[in-house]
């Protein structure tokens, strides 16, 4: 019998101890990585929700803009189209659903700009609206 045959027993597998140690190491690494991956998943979900809210608010503003254009261009309309639109938007407070969509009207007022102070309350030719949906806000101006 030669020496190579005596040392080679023919078993080429893993021992039970090696498999158990490998499973324990993988479990420990997985446990350490769980808080990191959980935070990343929560962050990605939050950005998706914010994007969805921004898209919904954009639709509301587009609906308002279309309505204001119709009011402004209506040849049979009487009076001030901005005042008509001011009334159509509703009052400051919660608007779960309206003809424009779902939003909360946070601010609604007429403003004007002057050279010294910038934006001031008053005037009749600019309407400032601030809309909110689940902590996402948008401010828009409508003028005549």
Overall number of strands: 5
- Global structural class: alpha+beta
Largest sheet: 5 strands, antiparallel
**DSSP summary: helix tally:** 3
Keywords: Membrane, Transmembrane, Transmembrane helix
Organism: Nitratidesulfovibrio oxamicus
InterPro entries: N_methyl_site, Pilin-like
Protein name: Prepilin-type N-terminal cleavage/methylation domain-containing protein
Lay out the secondary structure:
Blueprint: H1 3-7, H2 16-73, H3 81-89, E1 93-95, E2 103-114, E3 118-121, E4 126-133, E5 136-143
Antiparallel strand pairs: 1-2, 2-3, 2-4, 4-5
Give a brief rundown of this model.
This protein has 144 residues and is α+β, with helices and mostly antiparallel strands. It is 50% helix and 24% strand.
Write up this protein.
InterPro entries: N_methyl_site, Pilin-like. Keywords: Membrane, Transmembrane, Transmembrane helix. The chain crosses the membrane at residues 19-41. This is Prepilin-type N-terminal cleavage/methylation domain-containing protein. The mean pLDDT is 80. The N and C termini lie far apart (106 Å). The chain is built from 3 helices and 5 strands, in the order H-H-H-E-E-E-E-E. The longest helix is centred in the N-terminal third of the chain and has 58 residues, at 16-73. Helix 2 runs antiparallel to helix 3. Strand 4 and strand 5 (136-143) form a beta hairpin. It is an alpha+beta fold. Strands 1, 2, 3, 4 and 5 form a 5-stranded antiparallel beta sheet that branches. The chain has one domain (15-143). The chain is rod-shaped.
